[in-house]
C-alpha cells in the first residue's frame, strides 16, 4: 500500500479500510481459538486482564421483577421527599409532574386514551423496575451515585405520590417486590422457559 499499489479496482482510501478490516478479522480469528480463562492467552497476546467475580459484581446490578438482586437497606417516604427535592425536582418537577425530565406521577386511566401518560403510577408493571432504573440511571448528571437507602426512599416517595403506598411506608428488599403496581396485568408474560 505504501508504494501506491491498491487492491484491484479500489480507491486508495477504500483499500486501506479493507486492509484494516482484514487485519482486525485476522486478529479476532487468532483469539477465537483461545478458551475462556486461558492464562496462556494473556502471555501470548499481552492484552486484557482476567476478570474476577468482584469485578463482575460491580457491573451486575440488575434487579429482577421478583426482587432478586435487591441490596440491603431501606428507605421511607419522608426521606424520599427530601432527596427528591434536592436531586430530582430540577428535572422532574417539584411533585414529579415533569419538566426537563419525564413526568413520574399521575396518568392513571390514560393508557387507552388518545394521549396516554406513561408514568411510574400508570404504566410501570413492577416496583422493582423503579428501583433498578433509579439506581442505574439517576440522577441524570450522576448515575449510580445514590446509595441503596436513597434509592429505596425515592422509590417509596414516588410510589406514594402515585397513590400506590401510604405515607408511612418504608421499603426494603422484602417489601418492595410485594408492592402491587396498577398496570401489572397490562403486560404479556414471556412464555419462554426461565423467563419471568
From TrEMBL:
This is C-type cytochrome. Gene3D superfamilies: Cytochrome c-like domain. Keywords: Heme, Iron, Metal-binding, Signal. The lineage of its organism: Bacteria, Pseudomonadati, Pseudomonadota, Betaproteobacteria, Burkholderiales. Residues 75-162 form the Cytochrome c domain. PROSITE patterns: CYTC, PROKAR_LIPOPROTEIN. Pfam families: Cytochrome_CBB3 (PF13442). The keyword Iron applies. Residues 1-29 form the signal peptide. The keyword DNA damage does not apply. One of its GO terms (molecular function) is electron transfer activity. It comes from Paraburkholderia madseniana. SUPFAM superfamilies: Cytochrome c.
